[in-house]
């Protein structure tokens, strides 16, 4: 299913969420001049949670980065249907660009990059003892949420949904369909990895039923509002798609780099869960955590494929990078060793894959040309 740009919502839903702006934490902005840091930042920065666009910036000169290579990157982005692009260092903006008629205030679909939001929210629900990821999914979805026998269904856990290891048949006509007749037995859980969207989508119902609260409401209370994000999940067909500004995606990147802490406020306190979420979660696809994509592993699998490929997921990128990756090249990259967050929103570059694509390696080639110091 292809998700068009943000204006697609206008005829689908009636919410307090316009085609270009949402009435929330970052709208009705006062226009504040950027606060430019001329020294190399060493402390983490958290943009204010208020009705303002204030966000500290740091110069290329202060970082010693190669600003002369920026035009090449921007040309590449523009040629590949990019709408928004941001690089943060220690939470501060180094580069922020919008293309065409897309602006800072416009909302864009995250597509499968929104899986990371659900993964973190699952950890919060577990920390609050609403659920345990080792629980059978049927506890929260009810018996008969699949076409399996009760015994087979009981073997599928929330963790299987988080790690794409449910064993449900991904060869059905509609891989997104969450109706019981679409969820059929193929293999035992934990015996195969496949990027199957339907079991993931049902995690939203698992969380909502566990906490006895609307999914959007719980997400807003636990993640969105505490870190100053805006945006909302919208049901489109079988999918639950998150829409927000590029800066809101960047805020979530900062939260990840700070391991679930926002300027002294704990969003996710369970470090065992956070570490499991952002590291290899099973031995079937080493480049996959709890709905997070991981670089620097010995091998990886890709959506729509049963093949295993040798080497790093993104060879040009730092090996400790982990990411939220969505269809049509929605990208949220996080690099702990370099305190970097990189956001890219737009249309498909040259492919329409569900997550990783050749675009990842190409863009990181250009980014590293900017970040790396020239050889004397």
From TrEMBL:
UniProt keywords, alphabetically: Hydrolase
GO MF annotations, alphabetized: hydrolase activity
InterPro entries for this protein: Beta-lactam-related (IPR001466), Beta-lactam/transpept-like (IPR012338), Diverse_Enzym_Activities (IPR050789)
PROSITE patterns membership: PROKAR_LIPOPROTEIN (PS51257)
Beta-lactamase-related domain ranges (all copies): 84-299
Entry protein name: Serine hydrolase
Annotated source species: Maribacter confluentis
Phylogenetic classification of the source organism: Bacteria, Pseudomonadati, Bacteroidota, Flavobacteriia, Flavobacteriales
């Amino acid at each position: 299913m292809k998700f068009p740009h943000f204006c697609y919502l206008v005829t689908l839903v009636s919410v307090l969420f316009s085609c270009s702006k949402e009435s929330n934490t970052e709208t009705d902005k006062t226009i504040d001049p950027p606060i430019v840091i001329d020294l190399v930042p060493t402390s983490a920065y958290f943009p204010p949670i208020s009705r303002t666009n204030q966000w500290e910036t740091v110069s290329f000169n202060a970082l010693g980065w190669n600003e002369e290579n920026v035009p090449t990157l921007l040309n590449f982005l523009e040629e590949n249907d990019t709408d928004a692009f941001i690089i943060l260092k220690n939470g501060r903006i180094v580069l922020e660009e919008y293309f065409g008629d897309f602006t800072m205030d416009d909302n864009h679909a995250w597509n499968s990059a929104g899986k990371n939001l659900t993964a973190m929210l699952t950890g919060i629900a577990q920390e609050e003892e609403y659920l345990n990821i080792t629980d059978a999914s049927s506890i929260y979805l009810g018996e008969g949420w699949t076409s399996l026998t009760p015994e087979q269904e009981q073997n599928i856990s929330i963790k299987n949904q988080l790690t794409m290891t449910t064993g449900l048949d991904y060869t059905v006509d509609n891989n997104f369909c969450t109706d019981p007749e679409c969820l059929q037995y193929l293999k035992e859980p934990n015996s195969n990895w496949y990027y199957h969207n339907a079991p993931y989508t049902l995690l939203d119902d698992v969380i909502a039923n566990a906490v006895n609260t609307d999914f959007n409401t719980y997400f807003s209370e636990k993640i969105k509002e505490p870190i100053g994000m805006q945006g909302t999940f919208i049901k489109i067909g079988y999918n639950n798609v998150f829409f927000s500004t590029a800066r809101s995606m960047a805020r979530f990147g900062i939260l990840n780099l700070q391991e679930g802490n926002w300027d002294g406020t704990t969003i996710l306190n369970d470090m065992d869960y956070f570490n499991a979420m952002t590291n290899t979660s099973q031995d079937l696809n080493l480049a996959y955590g709890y709905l997070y994509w991981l670089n620097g592993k010995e091998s990886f699998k890709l959506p729509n494929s049963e093949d295993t490929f040798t080497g790093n997921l993104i060879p040009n990128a730092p090996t400790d990078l982990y990411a939220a990756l969505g269809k049509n090249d929605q990208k949220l990259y996080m690099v702990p060793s370099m305190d970097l967050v990189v956001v890219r929103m737009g249309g498909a570059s040259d492919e329409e894959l569900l997550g990783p694509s050749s675009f990842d390696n190409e863009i990181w080639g250009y980014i590293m040309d900017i970040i790396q110091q020239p050889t004397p």
